[in-house]
Structures are given as C-alpha cells and as structure tokens.
Amino acid sequence: MKKSILTALAAGVLILPSSANANAFCSGTVTHTLTYVNGGVMIRSTWRNNWTQICNVKEEWKGVTPEVCYIWFSHASSAVTENKPLTVHYLGLDQAECATMPTYGGAPAPYYVLLGQ
User: Residue 24 to residues 3, 4, 56, 65: CA-CA distances in angstroms?
Assistant: First the structure.
C-alpha cells in the first residue's frame, strides 16, 4: 500500500509543470536597436522596456552564432523601421519573465526571433 502511494506521488511530481520546461514568447514593438563595438546586439522592447542583448555579430554568445545574429539583427532593425511586431522566444523562461528578465548582457539567449505575425 505504501509503495503504491509513493509511486503515485512520484508520478504526480513528474507531470507537474516546471520552469525548466517553460517557454516565453516575448512579443511587442522594438523601439530601438543598438550594436556595441564588441559586436553585442541589443534591443529595447515594449515587453521589457529596457535594453536586452539578443546576440553578438563578432563571436558566439550563449550558443548563438554570429551568422544567426546577423539575421536576428536584420529582423530587429526591420521591426523598428517598418513598425512590425517582433517575437523573441526563450526556453526556460516563464511568460511573466518577459518583463523582468535580466537586462543588457545578463539577458538569456533567445531560441528564435520572429518578425511580424
């Protein structure tokens, strides 16, 4: 009896949502882009209302290659100039953390960047 209760409890814990499995889709307007001399690409978005780094055009940053970064920079720049929405998808981040994630280089690396809808 005790063994079956423990087994049921363990199974229940396994199916509970975990922040490690969270996915955040941070969407809105990008008001500014910024590129530092070291290659860091930053955006200022309506969902964070502060600067967050998304990648680096000179070197790999948190697993994001410069080749991918150039595309993301293009998406972010187009979002500003064409006034289109941008969605930045983060793995391991809760949706509510879009507004509170670390800023500048402390931001997590995106999983993808989507221009438009």
Answer: 38, 36, 21, 21
Q: Give the three-state DSSP class for 62.
A: coil
- The answer to whether 24 touches 90, Cβ cutoff 8 Å, is yes
Q: Which helix (H) or strand (E) is 87 found in, with range?
A: strand 86-91
If residue 77 lies in a helix (H) or strand (E), which one and from where to where?
helix 66-81
Encode pLDDT of 55-100 as tens digits. Answer: 999 999 999 999 999 999 999 999 999 999 999 999 999 999 999 9
Residue 101, both tokens: 């994630």
0.85 surpassed by pTM: no
Give, as one character, the DSSP assignment of residue 38: T
